Amino acid sequence: MNLSIRLTGTGGAQLVPAFGCECKACQRARLNPDFRRRPCSAEVRYNDAVTLLDAGIPDLMDHHSAGSFRQFLLTHYHMDHVQGLFPLRWGVGEKIPVYGPPDEQGCDDLFKHPGLLDFSFTVEPFVAFELQGLRVTPLPLNHSKLTFGYLLESAHSRVAWLSDTAGLPEKTLKFLLNNHPQVMIIDCSHEPRAEPPRNHCDLNTVIKINEIVRCPRVVLTHISHQFDSWMMDNPLPEGFEAGFDGMEIALE
User: Fold this and answer.
1) Over the stretch 83-137, which tens digit does the pLDDT of each residue have?
2) pLDDT tens sequence across 67-87
3) Is the terminal CB of the chain with fewer CB neighbours within 10 Å at N or C?
């Protein structure tokens, strides 16, 4: 069975277009829905099972009916990555497993009133587990809240999901270097900057990361309208591409 990932959102909390902004990227997105960016998230498909990677799209229930996916895999508990869970939890039916970091605070009252959601599936850094035959390894990231990326592995495919982060911790960087992902989907919120941003990557940071990891295909996500504007006038390096909402990434 092939591993595939569909990017359901490639924006940050600000989204594209950003409220009130008249930059050329936001104007383009208002005119053409293909350039809109929803909260950073994805659908992972393997062995006929669907895993929803983050749940920040507010109308998530309109896109995923009951029984159409097996579980959630969360990177962290910031609102733009979990807000779709709030109405869904009050539905009817079987419990839905939620895998994520051991953040005792979570987000608002999700843990206190979980409804359909089962938050008992906490994961630990570098301790691999399986989802319907897909091997998943949590990777610590640099963010303002406890956050994990994930290496997703089948028999012949490896994909690294690395959002949200500002650079990478040394142990995560070494792990990726040793495990050779074929595709790296990584937070790149900002255009190249003289000083690295504090909470998300800029393009210079991602380039430096890949000088070490040497991944042949780097897909950028968590993209801001400022970075979109920059990309309208500047090419990306070879092997780098900007993700977009609806993008399909299939691995043999």
Assistant:
1) 999 999 999 999 999 999 999 999 999 999 999 999 999 999 999 999 999 999 9
2) 999 999 999 999 999 999 999
3) C
Question: Would the pLDDT of 252 be above 80?
Answer: no
CATH topology (fold) of 3-251: Metallo-beta-lactamase; Chain A (3.60.15)
Q: Per-residue b/e over 137-152, b at no fewer than 16 CB within 10 Å?
A: bbbbbbbebbbbbbbb
129-131 and 134-140 beta bridge pairing: antiparallel
Q: State phi, psi for 147 to the nearest 5 degrees.
A: -140, 135
Closest CA to 198 of 136, 142, 124, 120: 142
Determine which helix (DSSP H) or strand (DSSP E) holds 85, and give its type and residue range. Answer: helix 85-88
DSSP structure string for 95-160: -EEEEE---SS-STTTTTS-TTEEEEEE--TT--EEETTEEEEEEE--SSS--EEEEEE-SS-EEE
Report the 10 Å Cβ neighbour count for 178: 8
At residue 22, the pLDDT reads 98
User: Residue 190: which of 217, 220, 212 has the closest Cα?
Assistant: 220
Tell me if the bond preceding 164 is cis, omega within 30° of 0: yes
How many CB atoms neighbour CB 63 within 10 A?
A: 12
Q: For residue 80, which phi and psi values (nearest 5 degrees)?
A: -70, 0
Read off the amino acid at residue 242: A
> What gap in Å lies between CA 246 and CA 76, rounded to an integer?
22
**Phi (first) and psi of residue 89, to 5 degrees:** -60, -20
Q: SS3 for 162?
A: strand
Q: What is the pTM of this model?
A: 0.97
